[in-house]
Structures are given as C-alpha cells and as structure tokens.
C-alpha cells in the first residue's frame, strides 16, 4: 500500500488526471481509508481551482495609457528612421 | 479553424495594422502577467516593467511575421522570457527553470514511515471571496505566487493562469513535461501551505 507521503507527492497528478488507471485506483483506495490524505488532496484541489480563477483584467489607468503611448510612439519613431 | 483561432488571426491582423484598441485589449490581458513572470527573473520590479515594455515593442515590430505555430500568448511570453533572461545575464544573474535544488515544503510533514505527523485540517468554504486575515483569499494566493522561485512562478502563471498548453510552457521555459509537472505541484504545495497557515 502507498504511504501518505507517496500519495501527497502524486496529489497534483491525480487531480489533473495524469495517472494511469492502476495508479489512480491505488490512491483512491488509500484515500478511502486515510482521512489525512483525503483532506490533503482536497486542499490541493482547492488550491488548483483558486490559482486558475483569474480576476478580470483591471481597467487601464493613466499610467498604462502613458506606457501604451510610449510603446506606440517608439514604434513610430523606428518606422520613420527606417523609412 | 476554431473560434479562438479565428479571433486570434483577426487580432493579429489588427495589430499588424497598428490598431490601438486591439493593442490596448491584448496589453490589458497580459501585461500584469508579463511583469509578474519577469519579476521572478530580473532583479527588481522596475526592471521587470522595462522588460515587459521592451517585449511589447518587439511584439508590435514583429507581429507581421507571427506564423501561428504557437498561440499568440505563447509567442509573447517566449519573447518576454528571452528578454528577461538576457537582462538577468547582464545583471550577473543566472536563472534556471529546471527547479533543481528546490525542495518541496512537505518533507517535514511525514514520519519515518511516510505517515502524516499531524493530520491536515479540513478546509471549509474556501471561496475566492472569503476574507482571511483581513484580505481576500485571492489576494493571499497572489501574494503566495509572488514569493515562488522563478521556475515555479513561471509555470503556474503560464500554465494555470494564462492557460497555455503544457507543450508550449515546456518549450518557452526549455524544460521537460515531467519537470513542468513537478514545478506545478511544488507551486501548489507552497500556495497551499500559505493558505493553510491562515485557516
């Protein structure tokens, strides 16, 4: 039987569906009997979901508009010098 | 051609034509992530902002030659990584993305037989909106990502947040897929530990 440490090492692979059927089954058997690992895998799943939750891009502020203008004017200068 | 591909082709055409609203749209979508990735590689936030700005100039100069062999985002981030690495080298810094020498932070949680020394806590209702220690969970997640080593930070931003394909992330960072998975797992472990400390 897998140890808790081995299960924890494979937690991301399990929730990302990257394990073979046999490996996933071994871990699920362990989780059915081990509350600690079951909680840990739940925590890693929550962590994954939170890190994949993307906040909507913030609106452009004055500084961003200034940077965009600087980028575009630098390009225009390059074009004029080149052409 | 899928809708996403068609949208990207249209966006590229607009960028080639010098359309400012199209540039503003893509800048808004990626600029913060460009700076966050670069900050892990160069010495300071100010330098990272410069690297991001240089990246945008290179993107607009060369977008006409973008052939769609990768996603547009993947192409932009590969330019950023190259520029950030060159800048780091000029600063006398060498940044490796293979993650060697980085331990995960979990080894001490187990006894000699690989069993938990202390059982992990049950997390209840951890939603993005939940407030912990005066800040939203998402603010804590963002802060934890800021503290990750460059390799883990790059993988979690590119793969989990920017949604790049695994293959693309590996190519951009020059790492194997197995290595990328290890880095992603370590990044999650570090963020999980940061959140667990607040529960």
From TrEMBL, chain A:
Location of the Putative zinc-finger domain: 4-37
Pfam families reported in the protein's UniProt record: zf-HC2
InterPro entries tied to this protein: Anti_sigma_zinc_sf, Znf_put
Protein name as it appears in the record: Anti-sigma factor RsiW
Organism: Aminobacter ciceronei
TrEMBL record, chain B:
Cited Pfam families: Sigma70_r2, Sigma70_r4_2
Domain RNA polymerase sigma factor 70 region 4 type: 142-190
Residue ranges of domain RNA polymerase sigma-70 region in the record: 26-93
SUPFAM superfamilies: Sigma2 domain of RNA polymerase sigma factors, Sigma3 and sigma4 domains of RNA polymerase sigma factors
Protein name in the entry: RNA polymerase sigma-70 factor (ECF subfamily)
InterPro entries from the UniProt entry: RNA_pol_sigma-70-like (IPR039425), RNA_pol_sigma-70_dom (IPR014284), RNA_pol_sigma70_r2 (IPR007627), RNA_pol_sigma70_r4_t2 (IPR013249), RNA_pol_sigma_r2 (IPR013325), RNA_pol_sigma_r3/r4-like (IPR013324), WH-like_DNA-bd_sf (IPR036388)
Coiled-coil regions listed: none
Gene3D superfamilies per UniProt: 1.10.1740.10, Winged helix-like DNA-binding domain superfamily/Winged helix DNA-binding domain
Keyword hit for Transcription regulation: yes
Keywords per UniProt: Sigma factor, Transcription, Transcription regulation
Family: Belongs to the sigma-70 factor family. ECF subfamily.
Native organism: Aminobacter ciceronei
